[in-house]
Amino acid sequence: MKEVKLGSQGLTIPTIGLGCMGMTTGFGGDIYGKADEKEAIATIHRSLELGGNF
Description:
two-stranded antiparallel sheet; alpha+beta; 1 helix
């Protein structure tokens, strides 16, 4: 996965981050539909397996 340096303290992050807004209920409703907790957790774990950290 392609990474970029963030700031001046040596932190690197992937050029693509995982957006998680649809994995929760927020702003007073399910604007993206009903969130599936097991699917959300599996998605986060897969992102980590692929080198995601952002």
